Automatic annotation (TrEMBL), chain A:
One of its GO terms (biological process) is mitochondrial translation. Gene3D superfamilies: Ribosomal protein S18 (4.10.640.10). The keyword Ribosomal protein applies. InterPro entries: Ribosomal_bS18, Ribosomal_bS18_sf. GO terms for molecular function: small ribosomal subunit rRNA binding; structural constituent of ribosome. Residues 46-75 are annotated as: Disordered. PANTHER family: 30S RIBOSOMAL PROTEIN S18, SMALL RIBOSOMAL SUBUNIT PROTEIN BS18M. Belongs to the bacterial ribosomal protein bS18 family. This is Small ribosomal subunit protein bS18m. It comes from Acrodontium crateriforme.
UniProtKB/TrEMBL annotation, chain B:
Residues 125-156, 432-512 are annotated as: Disordered. This is Uncharacterized protein. GO terms for molecular function: structural constituent of ribosome. The lineage of its organism: Eukaryota, Fungi, Dikarya, Ascomycota, Pezizomycotina. It comes from Acrodontium crateriforme. InterPro entries: Rbsml_bS1m-like.
Length: 232, 512
């Protein structure tokens, strides 16, 4: 974008805009962004020309504008000059950043992807927790372990439910059968012996009265699993 | 059992590591389970609070690997540590080894924490609605005013005999009712408790009457009268009926609620709600009181003492005295690590996460007030918004931010909730030693009209610099301003410029 437009929109306008200044604003920075090779070429080119072709017009242009403004000291010129400098500095910074990105073997996204752990308020960390070894552990997704009686207690007792009364509730029954419709072991279900027997009886009853298939989970459950992508 | 009374062997055993190491706490849950039942976690991550006792040994014993345990620990693993602290996972295993790990993670965290000097305060209400307009200033967990309040004996307590009833599942509650509450013994105890409450009530009436007649009831007389005031079983039943009827009107603020919670030793409801039975005030006030007055009314009871042994400080209203610049308006800031910037890896969060002394906390400034979306600012300028925004890959040591740690609370899971604010620029300048521009500004402000703009001495704007040290500020002011270095990580033991100068001065003074 040429600075001419920017300056024309100013309320206080310089009488003329330094035409030499335009050259640097219409530099190849925007075009170069279109392709990586273009960017590289542009960076190389700009680097080569940095000391010779780039600096010289800038100083000349600034000198010209100052000499002009010396006769007619208006604020617009000053503003324009500061804008010129700002934009030039911004472009230089962009070029530097592009060059640095090329020289580096990694990007910011790479680093961000390595910091896997979602820190929560109250977490305590030591330097080892920030290491790649530790962060890689947070990358792995684990499945919820089955609630054992030792850790969570009997679910049916906690909820005050009798499994026998729930034989019509196929979503509960399906939680206690495997993919192939086998009743799960009590070390997997975490139920106490009495409730495990009741649960097994309820499942057998549900299968017996035809509410539940015996060799796979209830179709409604499978349908829901397919839709949400959630596995049991 | 006192130690002196037991045998020498018993004494030896009691003081040995074999018996004196406490049993470890259950491991804390690092990650909350999602609805899908999937979670990410690491078994070797640092826990939010230590679960094992950390032990140390003397340097001479360390060299021999002697930690007072059954067998020596390998010197290779312990001798070259900066902080040789270990935790003992198992004193002995079937494989004939002592299972141990380094405990430096938590001991170092405690060290850093103590250097910050943060007081632990009572939990503030989480609601931020209009009802919180009369929000009280934070009070220390050690304040004595609550423990002497007879109307609210449970306010200063954190441990109760009763389980947390509000957190029970329906089945658990049924079991609790069956097994604990509706036993015959418990019922008899309840009747007895009610009778005692009635006696106290009647005694209070007698006392009031005696006071009105001009002859106060003595303690002995009251004790004598006590058996005669004991109610019959019918009277107790009648009283209970009355309580129930009142409860239908007053709900949670009723006398029955108060009696039940003190009978079961459950965390009570608020004192104001209980102290005004029968007065159904503005419902918002009541809800607000329920939330603010009793810290444990609606959340789980705490698992530790509210200070968790982390701090005994009662206030953060401390003015730090800098050796060169005198009393400071702000305490020395702490350099925190931005462990998770606001934007990164495709996700954009409301606030950045900061690690202050190894404890993760929220950046106090949210994304609303952002200004740091542009390119990297000049090397000279420290911009906290820029630091919070995204990872700067060229910054050696990572993104850092200066903060002032303010207060902390320990939540019901035992985690530290630290409250910080972004550091004051002048405090950063003093901390890093780049104070030239402050001197210049002050000189410029003083020049046109010298005294009237100056605040009275002893205030932050006009600190008393003392007279025990030679005033070296004048030559500093005439020096050309040195280029300011970018903010960098500074270890706790590293000196900054001003401290070095101060030490030099002290050395010179000593020589003279």
């Amino acid at each position: 974008m040429s600075l001419e437009y920017a300056l024309k929109r100013l309320a206080i306008r310089p009488s003329t805009v330094c035409t030499q200044c335009r050259r640097m604003f219409a530099s190849s920075a925007n075009r170069s962004a279109q392709s990586a090779t273009g960017a590289f070429a542009a960076v190389l080119q700009s680097n080569r020309d940095q000391d010779t072709a780039h600096r010289a017009p800038r100083t000349r242009g600034l000198a010209a504008s100052t000499t002009r403004s010396a006769g007619n000291p208006s604020k617009g010129i000053e503003l324009g000059r500061s804008m010129v400098q700002e934009i030039a500095a911004g472009q230089q910074a962009k070029r530097d950043a592009a060059l640095a990105d090329l020289q580096r073997s990694y990007t910011r996204q790479d680093l961000e992807r390595q910091a896997v752990r979602k820190w929560k308020v109250g977490d305590v960390y030591s330097p080892s927790d920030l290491s790649g070894y530790e962060q890689a552990k947070w990358k792995r997704i684990s499945r919820k372990p089955y609630p054992t009686r030792k850790t969570k207690g009997d679910v049916m007792d906690q909820l005050g439910m009798n499994p026998i009364n729930e034989y019509k509730n196929f979503s509960i029954m399906s939680e206690y059968v495997s993919n192939m419709g086998r009743i799960q072991h009590r070390k997997e279900t975490g139920l106490r012996p009495v409730n495990q027997r009741r649960m097994a009886k309820a499942i057998r009853r549900a299968i017996g009265v035809g509410l539940m298939p015996s060799t796979y989970r209830h179709p409604e459950i499978i349908k829901g699993t397919l839709e949400t992508g959630r596995r049991f | 059992m006192s130690k002196a009374a037991s045998s020498p062997t018993a004494r030896l055993l009691q003081s040995s590591r074999l018996f004196s190491l406490p049993r470890p706490l259950p491991p804390p849950l690092l990650e909350t389970l999602t609805a899908g039942g999937r979670f990410r976690a690491s078994d070797t991550a640092t826990a939010p609070y230590p679960t094992h006792q950390a032990i140390a040994t003397t340097p001479t014993s360390l060299a021999r690997g002697d930690w007072g345990l059954k067998r020596a620990l390998p010197a290779k693993a312990t001798r070259h540590q900066t902080t040789p602290h270990v935790r003992i996972v198992a004193q002995d295993t079937p494989e004939h080894i002592t299972d141990f790990a380094s405990a430096s993670d938590h001991t170092q965290t405690v060290q850093k924490w103590l250097e910050m000097g943060v007081p632990i305060v009572k939990k503030q209400p989480t609601r931020t609605s209009y009802s919180n307009s009369n929000r009280k200033p934070p009070t220390t967990v050690f304040s004595a005013d609550d423990s002497t309040d007879p109307a609210n004996p449970s306010a200063s307590r954190w441990k109760f005999d009763s389980p947390w009833i509000a957190g029970m599942q329906s089945g658990e509650f049924e079991t609790y009712l069956e097994k604990v509450v509706s036993g015959k013994k418990k019922k008899a105890a309840w009747k007895n408790f009610l009778a005692e409450a009635m006696v106290e009530d009647r005694l209070a009436t007698k006392r009031r009457e005696a006071q009105a007649n001009g002859e106060p009831l003595s303690w002995a007389a009251a004790e004598e009268m006590r058996p005669s005031l004991w109610p019959t079983a019918e009277e107790v039943d009648k009283f209970q009926k009355e309580l129930r009827d009142n409860h239908a009107v007053d709900n949670l603020s009723s006398e029955l609620t108060r009696l039940i919670s003190s009978f079961l030793d459950a965390p009570g409801l608020s004192s104001t709600a209980v102290a005004n039975p029968g007065k159904t005030q503005d419902m918002f006030n009541l809800l607000n009181d329920l939330d603010t007055d009793d810290q444990f009314a609606d959340s789980a009871p705490p698992s530790t003492h509210p200070a968790a042994g982390l701090s005994h400080l009662q206030t953060n209203a401390i003015m730090e005295n800098h050796p060169l610049y005198g009393p400071q308006a702000h305490r020395a800031p702490v350099l925190s690590r931005v462990v998770r910037p606001r934007s990164g890896a495709g996700s954009k969060e409301h606030v950045a996460k900061l690690g202050v002394a190894g404890i993760v906390t929220n950046d106090p400034v949210s994304s609303n007030a952002t200004s740091g979306f542009g390119s990297r600012p000049g090397q000279q300028k420290y911009d906290p918004d820029y630091m919070a925004n995204q990872i700067d890959i060229d910054l050696a040591g990572g993104n850092k931010m200066w903060v002032h740690p303010r207060t902390a609370t320990i939540d019901e899971k035992g985690r530290i909730r630290l409250e910080v604010s972004r550091a004051n620029n002048e405090a950063i300048a003093v901390k890093t030693g780049n104070v030239q521009h402050i001197h210049e500004q002050r000189a410029a402000a003083d020049r046109p009209m010298s005294s009237p703009r100056m605040p009275p001495p002893g205030n932050p704007g006009n600190a008393k610099f003392g007279f025990s040290l030679p005033d070296r500020r004048q030559p500093m002011r005439s020096q050309p301003r040195p280029p300011r270095s970018p903010p960098r990580a500074r270890s706790l033991h590293e000196e900054n410029e001003s401290e070095k100068r101060f030490r030099d001065l002290m050395d010179k003074g000593g020589k003279q």
